[in-house]
Amino acid sequence: MPIPTDCKYTKEHEWIQVQGNSGTVGITDHAQESLGDIVFVELPAVGTDLTAGKSFGTVESVKAVSELYAPASGKVVAINEALNQTPESINKDAQAAWMIKIELSNPAELNGLLTAAQYEAYIAEEK
Amino acid sequence: MRYLPKSPADRAHMLREIGYKSIDELFAPIPAEYRLTRDLKVPRQMAESEIIDFFRACAEDNASGYAVFLGAGAYHHYRPVVIDSLISRGEFLTAYTPYQPEISQGTLQAIFEFQTMICELTGMEVANASMYDGSTGSAEALMMAVRVTGRKGAVVARTVHPEYREVMLTYTQHQGLPITEFGYLENGRVDMADLEKKITADTACVMIQSPNFFGTIEDVAAVADLAHSKGALLVVSISEALSLGVVKPPTEADIVSMESQSFGVPLGFGGPYAGVMATKEKFVRQMPGRLVGETKDSNGKRGFVLTLSTREQHIRREKATSNICTNQALIATMATIYMTVYGREGIKELAQQNLAKATYAANEFAKKGKILFQGTPRFNEFVVQTKQDPHDINNRLLEKKTIGGYPLKRFYPELGNAALWCCTELNSKEQIDTAVQAVGQ
Amino acid sequence: MSDKYIKKATRHVNQNEDLIFERSSPGKKGYRLPPLDVPEVDYKQALGQAARADLGNMPEVSEMEIIRHFTRLSTWNYAIDLGMYPLGSCTMKYNARVNEVVARLQGLAEAHPWQPEKVSQGALRIMKILADCLLDITGMDAITLQPAAGAHGEMTGIMLIHALLKSKGNPRKKILIPDSAHGTNPATAAICGYAVENLKSNAQGMVDINALASQMNEDVAGLMLTNPNTLGIFEQEIHKIAAILHDKGGLLYMDGANMNALVGKTRPGDFGVDVMHLNLHKTFSTPHGGGGPGSGPVACKKALEPFLPKPVVMSKPDGTVGLDYDRPQSVGRVRMFFGNFGMHVRALAYIMANGPDGLRQTTEDAVLNANYIRKKLDGTYELPYKSASMHEVVFSDHLQSEKGVKTGDVAKRLIDYGFHPYTVSFPLVVHGALMIEPTESESLDELDLFIDAMQSIAREVNEDPELVKTAPHSTRVSRLDETAAARKPVLRWKP
User: Fold this and answer.
1) pLDDT mean over C28-53
2) Residue in B116, B268, B345 nearest the CB of C109
3) Which end of chain C is more exposed for a tag (fewer CB within 10 A), N or C?
């Protein structure tokens, strides 16, 4: 699956798509593939303040738990409630299965994230 | 050595295959200065008959065949013989934790049935596969309430089993979880006014026991209302599981921590027993311990697996809900068989017999001493206050092969010469009359 | 599927059986109570509001059905009584039947924990003799039998360390734990309020002494070490490890999970361990029972003794055995009453059946068996660490993974061959680990059958990898959908 160029990426395999001052966050297709069948997602409450690089939740497969790391700092303004009922939608289309929307408090942080091309090179190297 | 299935020739052959000359070479990784060159100081190798003789002598040195009026967290009930007959099957006895579901369906289905029966009895939505016992289960319940609420601290009734309270203190001492205790009233129930004073915005849970340590059945709904109005959870601890045959289940609780020893588990000088935790579905991911879930195999056939394992230590390590690994599966299986034998009608009938015996005994004791905590319902335990020190009474009873009630002075000095008596279906009228007579002397 | 290589096992019919609730119908009974010899009490009147309406969906079945139900269920389990159970670090050894007989003697099985000491001398004596045996086996000074399982023992041990350090002024902040450790170790440290710091293994699979020296400082309370470690390798520089900790005022905790490699041959107390737990359900043969009960006594050096959980079993001047509750520095009680006494009885019966010579021979046979398997399977499966093995050996699925077959698949195929799988994917330091612990309980014939099975499976991986990847083929259920179970948990039966 091609890596969307309208997003930025973390080395922990989160994507963030920015529109104005708002960012939508999920995990990458590469991440869902290495996790395997996802059975549960734990997300923060709306209103939580996140710090870039810090954990904001977890994603679980049957036999593993992975932390989710905030690509940027800001306040959580929405969470994808549907993931409670259908965590498998992340396996089906990780790019569509967004997790949280945040109001960015320091958009300059985005400059430190990977571009699609950089991320592609990064995961190629990881393999 | 009779458990070792190898001949000297087998050992020599294996060493040759490995390429070693002697057994000592296998132990070469242990630095020479740390190798033990003497025999261990343990009893010499004994024949099976000698072992049985030794333990039989020990058993006879214990009160064997005495009438027992002790309860207080460990209850003397009849154990149907099918329990030991079934759990002695090697496939239950000598199996490991069912991590390989294809060859562990027996244990898994039995535990699934256990979880279901515990839900039915406690009125909760989910139950786990077992905890070590009621005391550690209570400590785990308290820590779970902290995870659910994000608050730090608990308010625990003084009428919770004193050793459960000691265990809770031990478990929570390094976690910054202050435990405050609240008192009881003259009717034996918790002091709601005291609870209201002690509950704060930091209280994760209120914990009560029902029937409580004095045998009094609490007004669970009232305590739940108060706890919930302050944003705290209610944990109800049950140490006499058989009470659920006649006592309304604590459905208003958020977590129920129960000791299931009464269900076919021998007194065994205090263990092994089996705790179990039950709760609402919405809290299941904060629950400690193993859980069995139903699923299907690749051909669509029903089967069972250990599930939601990501809560547990082998996956989440230092972030796990608990460090518990080995639990009490065989004891839970015993309890499942017991609950099956008595079932929907028998558990009730048996509980009614316990209630009748305790009621008769309390009425008789009332003629010789004072029954404390009157006016509230009880199950099979009651407190008798006497003029004489209950230790003296108990010494007298020992001569009649009777073990009297538990003297309460150690934990409740304010009650004076009081003892906690328990009567189950195994206490005959004759035994009760003998005990009453000794108290009156 | 192909059965052509399978020697140990064959298929046979087994019975289907519903859930007990599905066999229930009103009016069936599996019990009869004796007539009541005191006046009846109307419970609804006596309890009022607190009275229960009914018992919902609790089953109603006859005794015959109960026997068949649980007997049928039991036949769906694998068990040591059926064959080898090579689970690494689990020590699935023979559970002697005499243990079960003595634990059920009336005076022991029906003893109330709070009956007076003078009529509990038999039980207390058993605990005291067992305690003394375990002290000599471990080379320690003091012991508690109270912890109910291994992880519970770990918690007790780490609390002892915390209490001792606190009494000296500073309980410290961290516990070091090797990357090869069981998950219970870090989970335990967390309960005791310690942060966990990972300690890397070296290329030999042992503690990296230099890393330990650089990580050890006055913030570190201690190290939790399993020895032999989970790779089955004895930490040969254990004395240096202990010295590094002790020099900086830290303590050495030993997880006794692998004590089956050491009993009668060496003693942790002699090689620098300060506190450790034993798993009576591993080393001392008390049955696993499908996941418990266990028992996890904790033995320690003199300096830690004042902090042991109360009560402590002790000999009294008059020659009787008693319980000492007067221990002001105790960490508290970790369980009500005195622990899993029934397991204490069984463990002592095991020690008596062995004697000093039997215990030593047991350890030797356990190590011999593991090394025999290692020798025979080395090459067929990759051996990632070449250091000498003690009682267990860890291979990896490196060679098989080229065909897309993983350790979990080989394990499942082993089921078709009549064996329980080995421990899969642990320790975490080995990618695709196969962790094999035969114990002393296996005969040469059973070992050869196991080796033959493992070699056959390796052949199948090359000839027909799908056969292995879809195993087991001979069980009453095939691979179960664990994903569905976790996504939509069904944790109880509903009508």
Assistant:
1) 97
2) B268
3) C
Contact B269 C338 (CB under 8 A): yes
Does residue C495 belong to the interface with chain B, where contact is any CB pair within 8 Å? no
Residues 6+ apart with CB under 8 A from A86: none
Rounded to a whole number of angstroms, the distance from the CA of A40 to the nearest CA of chain C is 7
Query: Per the structure block, which two tokens stand in for C91?
Result: 């020590």
Q: Which fold has domain C99-351?
A: Aspartate Aminotransferase; domain 2 (3.40.640)
Window from A56-70, C120-134, C228-242, C303-317 with minimum mean pLDDT:
A56-70
Residues of chain B with pLDDT below 50 are none
In order, the DSSP letters of C12-53 are: --------GGGG--TT--S--PPPPSS----HHHHHGGGB--
Give counts: helices (H), strands (E), chain C: 15, 12
Relative to beta strand C195-199, strand C174-178 is parallel
Q: According to the model, what pLDDT value does residue B73 have?
A: 97
pTM, two decimals, is 0.96
Instruction: Say whether C486 and A60 touch across the interface (CB within 8 A).
Output: yes
The subunits that touch chain C, with at least 3 C-beta pairs less than 8 Å apart, are A, B
As for how many domains chain B has, the answer is 2
One DSSP character per residue, C255-267 reads: EGGGGGGTTTTB-
Contact B69, B435 (CB under 8 A): yes
Whether B285 and chain A come into contact, CB under 8 Å, resolves to: yes
Tokens representing C133 are 């045996």
Q: Give the range of the structural domain holding residue A36, as residue numbers without chain letter.
A: 8-126
- As a dihedral over the C-alpha atoms of residue C306, residue C308, residue C309, residue C315, rounded to 10 degrees, the angle is -80
Does B285 sit within 8 Å of A63, measured CB to CB?
no
Domain with B288, as residue range(s), is 81-337
Residue B9 — φ and ψ, nearest 5°? Answer: -65, -40
The tokens of B78 are what?
């009849």
Specify whether B279 is located in the same domain as B402: no
The three-class DSSP label of residue C355 is: helix
Candidates A32, A62, A65: best to mutate against C (most CBs of C within 10 A) is: A62
Contact C192, C214 (CB under 8 A): no
What is the distance in angstroms between the Cα of B197 and the nearest Cα belonging to chain C? 26
On whether residue B21 sits in a domain, the answer given is no
Place of tokens 């309960």: C191
- Both B266 and B394 in one domain: the answer is no
List, in order, residues 6 or more apart from B434 with CB less than 8 Å away: B67, B397, B400, B402
Alpha-helical segments (H) within B64-184: 81-87, 90-93, 105-122, 134-149, 162-172
A:32-61 residues touching chain C, CB 8 A cutoff: 37, 39-40, 60-61
B116 → closest Cβ in C82, C96, C492: C492
Q: Domain residue spans in chain C?
A: 99-351, 361-469
CATH architecture designation of domain C361-469: Alpha-Beta Complex (3.90)
> Does a structural domain hold residue A49?
yes
Q: Answer for the pair C115, B401: CB distance below 8 angstroms, yes or no.
A: no
| Look-up of token digits 């699934």 | B112
Residue A1 lies in a domain: no
Report residue A71 as tokens: 């690509």
The reply to whether B162 and B297 lie within a common domain is: yes
Q: Which amino acid is at B280?
A: K
In a domain, A29, yes or no: yes
Residue A37 counted as domain residue: yes
Q: What is the pLDDT of residues C393-438, one digit of tens each?
A: 999 999 999 999 999 999 999 999 999 999 998 898 999 999 999 9
Query: Three-class SS of residue A47?
Result: coil
Q: Do domains C99-351 and C361-469 have the same CATH topology?
A: no
Q: Which one, of C143, C489, B123, lies nearest residue A84 by Cα?
A: C489
Chain B residue with CA closest to A58: the answer is B310
Q: Are B266 and B328 members of one domain? A: yes
Residue C2 has pLDDT above 70, yes or no: no
